[in-house]
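User: Sequence in, structure out. Go.
Assistant: Echoing your sequence, followed by the structure tokens.
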Amino acid sequence: MARWALGLAIVPCGLLWLVGAGLAIAVLRRNRDGRNHGRKKAIAALIVAGLWLLLAFALPATLLAIAPDRSDSGQVTSEGSVTPQELQVGDCIPDLLSEGYKLTVKVSPCAEPHQSEVFANFDLTVSTYPGEEDTRALAEQGCFDRLQELLPRRKLATASVLYLYPFSGTAFREDRGVSCLVESDVPVTDRIVELPPVG
């Protein structure tokens, strides 16, 4: 029972933590008869389950704690991190990003040196996940179509564009959003793309 308690506590699943902790408590109660029924493993199981529980609460709190401040108009006023789904048009990113999926993205005020800017967000209109290659192609085409509306054709050839898109069927079912970014080879402190005024 003690071995089961420790094994279940190690598995990253909330329900199994509770089962493991329950078994560990049962083992510790059995130790009252003076015999060793796996006391050390039971204690280890409770410690592991407690650490998982702490992490489950601490991670969201940490992500919230490092969220950027925004003005009433939505512009970032202090550096922080957001999920790709929280990126807004006009957000500036200090570094170059690779295409695909990101867990979090650092954003900063656009007056500070940055190399990437979000110029468009849109949702893929296909009803089912078309696969990674086709999703990438749809994201690329959608971003270039939107960039063409903002930049003259002579600048399109030199613009470096990337896109964050759903990387799997699971991610697609949760969010079909694509974020389009334009990049500069060197850090800048002004707009890479002049966005139209809001409203």
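User: And one key feature?
Assistant: The first helix runs from residue 2 to 10.
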